[in-house]
Amino acid sequence: MTPHEQIFAVIKQNMQIIIPGTEGKEILETNSMRDFDADSLHIVEVVSRSMKQLRIKVPRARLLLVKNLHELVDVFEEFAVKQAVA
Amino acid sequence: MAKRRTSLVIMGDAGTPITALLPRLSCAEQELVGSISTECQRRQSLLARLVAHSAIRNVLPASLRDSTIEILKGSNDGPLALVNGQAGVIGISLSHSSRLVAAVAWQVEESESYSAGVDVERLRNSDIGDSAYAFSRRERRLIRAAAQVTAWSGIAAWVAKEAAWKALCPEPESGLDTVEIQALDLRSGDVTLKPLATGRKLCQAEIIRAHLSIRKGPDGLYILGLAENGGNTFSFCDAVCATSNAQYIRRTFDLSERRINYET
């Protein structure tokens, strides 16, 4: 599994735990969490838990303009690389 | 000095078919609701608008009570209230969670800068209180201490921050670090927040006051948060505090006259 796929798998898993009705549903990178009726609290919980599990710290400002899961994974990956290099 | 008229309306979703409710919106509102991708969010958006109409009618002078009211989208992506096509007459803040919607409306006065924010969240298990992404270290300490009063201290803190953020009417790019909780008393429901960074420019005072209360909705319990930015001695947060333990289906709070109207 590539790092991108690993990150997406963690985020998907947390979505299925936290957002009601997502378990068993297909989740694509083109989706956003809002497509599954996630509210702001669900979204923050998914992001927060995923960051903790992946041991990645992403500044809040970088996440504010993310529009879908693909962009979210890209941002996570960017900071995972930065932390690995630092 | 005349009291500012402020109204909070809370409503549980009774399951009325959306087709029966849509005609109560204007064409522009129906278009906005129709553009939302999921049925659940379309429904919540529609109900929030209807509740907002109700709150706005409560604060309009008697001569304007039959006005055309619309809730459209403002330049900062937040709700914009139009009364007979005119903006800037009434301020509005909306929130929805699961099957509960809330709206707070207030008269906009040139002489005094004031805005309010409302947030509701359905109570559920959540570890949000431990989140370093959602809360600063100081806030997490306060939440841990407040957890001795209720297991829902994390969600309560979240609701207070969201309500305060809305009361600042910020740009959508600003985030959770616009405000920071300074005091969190879950026995009284009183929360004090301080604006940070970009929030300072938007804040009318050095602090933002918020009040939290537990409300019973159609599908369980909710936390309701109300915050105000600016204002003077009269505070709508005080009025809500007086009724925070009551159950309801739908309640309208005429906070400026401290009269509670029950509607079912």
Q: What can you tell me about this protein's structure?
A:
The complex is a heterodimer of chains A (86) and B (264). Chain A is mainly alpha-helical. Chain A has 4 helices and no strands. In chain A, helix 1 (3-18) crosses helix 2 and helix 1 (3-18) crosses helix 4. The longest helix of chain A has 17 residues, at 69-85. The radius of gyration of chain A is 12 Å and the shape is globular. Chain B is an alpha+beta fold and 264 residues long. Chain B is 26% helix and 32% strand. In chain B, the strands form 3 sheets. In chain B, strands 4-5-1-11-12 form a 5-stranded antiparallel beta sheet. Chain B has a 5-stranded antiparallel beta sheet with strand order 6-10-9-8-7. A two-stranded antiparallel sheet of chain B has the order 2-3. In chain B, helix 2 packs antiparallel against helix 3 (39-59). Chain B is globular, with a radius of gyration of 17 Å. The two termini of chain B are 34 Å apart. The model of chain B is unreliable at 241-264 (pLDDT under 50). The chains are: A mainly alpha (86), B alpha+beta (264). Chains A and B meet through helix 2 and helix 3 of A and helix 5 of B.
Which helices and strands, and how do they pair?
The complex is a heterodimer of chains A (about 90) and B (about 260).
Chain A: H1 3-18, H2 40-54, H3 60-63, H4 69-85
Helix pairs in contact in A: 1-2, 1-4
Chain B: E1 6-12, H1 18-21, H2 27-34, H3 39-59, E2 69-73, E3 79-83, E4 90-97, E5 100-107, E6 114-122, H4 137-146, H5 153-167, E7 179-185, E8 190-195, H6 198-202, E9 208-217, E10 220-230, H7 236-241, E11 250-254, E12 259-262
Antiparallel strand pairs in B: 1-5, 1-11, 2-3, 4-5, 6-10, 7-8, 8-9, 9-10, 11-12
Helix pairs in contact in B: 2-3
Q: Would you summarize the structure shown here?
A:
Chain A is mostly helical and 86 residues long. Helix content of chain A is 60%, strand content 0%. The longest helix of chain A has 17 residues, at 69-85.
